[in-house]
Every structure is written in structure tokens, then in C-alpha cells.
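Checklist before submission:
- one chain only
- standard amino acids only
- sequence pasted in full

Submission:
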Amino acid sequence: MKKIVTYCAFLLVTATASAQQHDHASHATPAPVAGPQAAAAQLPETLVLKEAEFNFGKIPQGKPVTHVFEIVNSGKDSLKITNVQAGCGCTTPEWEKDKSLAPGATTKITVGFNAAAEGQFNKPVTITYNGTQTKVLFIKGEVWKTPAASAPENKSLGDLKN
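Returned file contents:
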């Protein structure tokens, strides 16, 4: 019995020492990243969204809605929005194409949504600028189904007027 206890204690000491060595290794400073990824990670944000998400709330089915997002160039150089792409055909972005945005200048992106299907929605819109840089904004809300027929005629309306 004494040999088993001694052996178990040896395993416990060995496992504890191994775990302590592992913990120290995990706290080591990571090696610096080289190449284009490092340069991109150090670039300051130049395209700033005044709001990154808009909630339409509850909207009726079949009624298109729009929202205007404001974009600011916070960089020191001009930038150009090369594309604005929605995640699906029910979302349509509009923006000034082929226009450079000077430092400190603002522009607008109008995002339309055609509420064809009932239920919750959360749609991404990707802005591509300066060639390969991107930002994503979102529109969301809930579409409620409109009645198939109009409300029935109120025949008692004449009695109320008298």
C-alpha cells in the first residue's frame, strides 16, 4: 500500500511541475507578425461609420424602407469607396460612385430594404474602400404580415353619425 501512495504522489508532483512549466510558456510575449498583415494591423482606421447598425423596428410586409448611413474619412489621405454590397437582393445600397473622400469629409450611403418576407431580419452591407479595406454595417428589424384583404365595412357607421 505504501508503494502505491508513493507512486501516486510522484505522479502528482510530476503533473504539477509540468502544468507550471506550461503556464509560464503560455504567458510568453508573442513573436511580432511580419509582412503585409503587420502593416494592415498598424494602419489607423480611416473610414468611420457614425452608426454601424440601424434597427427599423416593426415594418409592414411589402412596404420598402430606407435609412441613410453617414461615413467620415478620419484619415490624413483621401479615400475612395469602391463598392457597397448587400448580403441579399432585398437590400439595396446607393452611394456616390467614383468620388474621392477628402480627409475630414463625409458622405452618405442610403440602404433600402424591401420587406417581402415576414419575420426577423438582420442584413449586412459591406463597404469596400481603398482597394481592399472593408467595413460592415447592418440593418435589422421585424416584418409583420399585412392582411390579405382590407378591413370589412362598418355598417353601424351610419347609426353612429345620426
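Reviewer check: The domain at 44-144 is CATH 2.60.40.10 (Immunoglobulin-like).
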